[in-house]
Design goal:
Elements (H helix, E strand, L loop, with lengths): L2 H12 L8 H21 L4 H23 L5 H22 L2 H33 L3 H23 L5 H22 L2 H16 L4
Helix pairs in contact: 1-7, 1-8, 3-4, 6-7
Length: 207
């Protein structure tokens, strides 16, 4: 297996969060969206009126997206622009639906999620250090790489001037850059061992 494939295997096993490269996220999106909406309604203690409004908002967006996909008389650029407009309007309606208290609670939930993700990443890194016999210098470089990646990813997500498709391209480029960095952090032996770990993980039955 060439170096590029080994590095790709690395990120599958490391499981450090990357919104741009995690293919399984795409597979979970269809089922995860409905679950997320249900959890959002529950966690923010939506009133019956809010639940009805949320259902209506999502139904409208679903109809708009379905009609847009059927439209074959527009260019790719027009399609992307209209899709982005629908998404922005949906976000605005969602914000208008929430009370000040719910908005505050949502921000707190986001912060808690980031803290948990950071703690999870640290645990994974400690596990890697043991399994791959990483040096303290390698661990330090991995931490620096992750922090830089997280900062850049946050900048991309919060950039309101970019469309969703442009953000996807930015995330893709960021992931490629991170793969290149990995080549200078891990030894060829460690990458080979990572490949074997990935192979073992994929061969285990899903429970």
């Amino acid at each position: 297996m060439d170096m590029k494939k080994l590095v790709a295997s690395l990120f599958s096993v490391v499981l450090i969060v990357s919104v741009s490269q995690a293919q399984d996220r795409k597979e979970r999106m269809h089922h995860g969206k409905r679950h997320h909406k249900e959890m959002l309604s529950k966690d923010l203690n939506f009133s019956e009126d809010q639940k009805k409004q949320l259902k209506d908002i999502n139904a409208t967006v679903g109809k708009q997206m379905a009609e847009l996909k059927k439209n074959d008389n527009i260019t790719v650029k027009e399609y992307r622009n209209r899709k982005e407009t629908i998404r922005k309007e949906h976000k605005q309606k969602m914000q208008a639906l929430l009370t000040p208290e719910q908005k505050t609670k949502m921000e707190k939930m986001k912060e808690e999620k980031l803290v948990k993700a950071k703690e999870r990443n640290q645990r994974q890194l400690e596990g890697m250090k043991t399994k791959l016999n990483l040096t303290d210098e390698q661990v330090s470089k991995l931490n620096s790489s992750h922090e830089a990646f997280a900062t850049k990813a946050k900048e991309i997500r919060s950039n309101q001037s970019m469309t969703s498709d442009q953000k996807k391209e930015q995330f893709k480029a960021l992931a490629e850059k991170r793969k290149e960095e990995a080549k200078s952090i891990f030894t060829s032996e460690q990458l080979e061992k990572m490949k074997e770990m990935h192979k073992d993980r994929r061969s285990k039955p899903v429970k």
